């Protein structure tokens, strides 16, 4: 089943204490690159999140955003450093006295100092947090996978249409190939006649040697056979239930190589025109395949 590398998924879950929101965005990438942004104090769950994602997403850049909100704050300790507060109060009073400031020191002046009041989260059970986070991750992955599959099916239809167009171009080249040698032979005979005149007796043996040399040099049967083989492999790969993006990309490179060889071997206007069309179609296919997982 063909899957696109791009997509977006979102999941939410809550256990009455914790409320998680998970958003996953996937982009084109040669490898499986997973980047997770989550609250630092639950960073120890990162590998568990990656394990779920890797189970379903084999290739592409995966950006994961995890947000945690506490429905109530029963899991925090508030510590007040009374000795430090007294020291600050005394210091502020001395400053006010020295500078002849009559303004009184208020509670706001004291609590605005960061070190006075410290909020610390109580140590939480890792499994409790994970059991709340896991459903949100799974929902987000499930959503994004459905999106990637749907988009992949649309990409597949487009690529099949283009590979069929490419196949028709190869058929045109194949039909033209048998006539190339005869056309070369007649063209060579005509050029010699134009240059030397009708009175010149053309050596048929030398002519045939030249034609045989040209026929061997311009033979593209092997390239045609390999192209059909690559096309068959390409079409078969589109039906596989696995990640095939890299394989398809490789097959496109091989087809492009064979087309270039045909273009260099055959000096024929029609064939060269077909070669240009074939390369253009391959480039369109390659652009789409870049989106395949």
Q: How would you characterize the overall build of this protein?
A:
By secondary structure, the chain is an alpha+beta fold. It has three domains: 7-73 and 124-148, Ribosomal Protein S5, domain 2, CATH 3.30.230; 76-121, no CATH class; 152-289, Four Helix Bundle (Hemerythrin (Met), subunit A) (Up-down Bundle). Helices cover 60% and strands 15% of the residues. It has eight helices and six strands; from the N terminus they run βββαββααβααααα. The protein has helices spanning 46-56, 82-98, 107-111, 126-196, 204-217, 221-237, 245-265, 269-289; strands at residues 7-14, 18-27, 32-37, 60-70, 76-80, 117-121. A four-stranded mixed beta sheet has the order 1-2-4-3. Strands 5-6 form a two-stranded antiparallel sheet. Strand 1 and strand 2 form a beta hairpin. Helix 4 runs antiparallel to helix 6 and helix 4 packs antiparallel against helix 8 (269-289). The N and C termini lie close together (10 Å). The mean pLDDT is 85. One of its GO terms (molecular function) is RNA endonuclease activity.
How are the SSEs ordered, and which strands pair?
Layout: E1 7-14, E2 18-27, E3 32-37, H1 46-56, E4 60-70, E5 76-80, H2 82-98, H3 107-111, E6 117-121, H4 126-196, H5 204-217, H6 221-237, H7 245-265, H8 269-289
Parallel strand pairs: 3-4
Antiparallel strand pairs: 1-2, 2-4, 5-6
Helix pairs in contact: 1-4, 4-5, 4-6, 4-8, 6-7, 7-8
